UniProtKB/TrEMBL annotation:
Family to which this protein belongs: Belongs to the ROK (NagC/XylR) family.
Cross-referenced InterPro entries: ATPase_NBD (IPR043129), ROK (IPR000600)
Descriptive protein name: ROK family protein
Record organism: Cryobacterium mannosilyticum
SUPFAM superfamilies recorded: Actin-like ATPase domain
PANTHER family: POLYPHOSPHATE GLUCOKINASE, ROK (REPRESSOR, ORF, KINASE) FAMILY
Length: 254
């Protein structure tokens, strides 16, 4: 395996996914392994699951010493998780990077999941070579955001939690809200219209990219939006976190 090979792991509210990534092409070199997120999402349980997953993935790669990047749905500052919107409160203020390094016996790089997805799109996807301000949003259990300017990532923007109509708007605009409230595509698109118009007013972006699993149904809702800014689906959807975490691990090792 070349030095452009790394392992990416994406920790989510329901599943933890990982694979070996070829960073010269932005493709997966192994099957994607997925394990359920342990109930309660407590740090020690998640570390144990990631340990099992990493073993399976590195056995497939037959390369134990590849760089490992892990992404997680929280603010990540200097290796510490600083928020917990849809995960256990035990993550707040935790030295997560150190905890994983100790548990896995391997150096890792730890980042926010939307930042990983945004970085992946900037390297291998819809934001590649795009000048100016690009905002990637992931619409899933929560709303994650990555802000890029001329391809440079501004980390931890957390724009899913913008207060609109007096509420944390992730609770209205996430795909989980559509499912929970059984909203039609039209009703949900009305909420997305409000959300993206607010981002437009605040950032005057040059491009919006929409990621998360639901972006495979982009034809159902993107054409319903009326925005000044072009809005397009992400290229990597469910693998973006894995690709970006792996790419950032190598960038940070260099
Ligand atoms: C979290 C973010 C995360 C996003 C997507 C939000 O609730 O605050 O850190 O990126 O969900 O998982």
């Amino acid at each position: 395996m070349s030095s452009t090979t790394a392992i990416g792991i994406d920790i989510g509210g329901t599943g933890i996914k990982g694979a070996v990534v070829d960073l010269s092409t932005g493709t997966l070199l192994s099957d994607r392994v997925k394990l359920p997120t342990p109930k309660g999402g407590r740090p020690a349980d998640i570390v144990d699951t990631v340990k099992d997953l990493l073993k399976t993935v590195s056995d497939k790669a037959a390369a134990p010493d590849l760089p490992v990047g892990i992404c997680f749905p929280a603010i990540v500052k200097n290796g510490h998780t600083m928020s917990a919107a849809n995960v256990s409160d035990k993550w707040i203020g935790l030295a997560a990077e150190k905890l994983f390094e100790k548990g896995l016996g391997h150096p890792i790089h730890f980042v926010n999941d939307a930042d990983a997805a945004g970085y992946a799109e900037s390297q291998f996807g819809a934001a590649k070579g795009v000048p100016g301000v690009v905002i990637l949003t992931t619409l899933g259990t929560g709303v994650g955001t990555a802000l890029l300017n001329d391809g440079i990532l501004v980390p931890n923007t957390e724009l899913g939690h913008l207060q609109i109509d007096g509420v944390d708007y992730e609770t209205r605009a996430a795909y989980s809200a559509k499912e929970r409230e059984d909203l039609s595509w039209e009703k949900w698109a009305g909420r997305l219209q409000k959300y993206y118009s607010t981002l437009e007013a605040l950032f005057s972006p040059d491009l919006f990219i929409v990621g998360g699993g639901v972006s495979k149904h982009h034809q159902q809702f993107l054409p319903l939006l009326n925005l000044k800014t072009p809005i397009i689906p992400a290229v990597h959807r469910n693998n973006a976190g894995i690709l970006g975490a792996a790419a950032l691990a190598v960038k940070n090792r260099a």
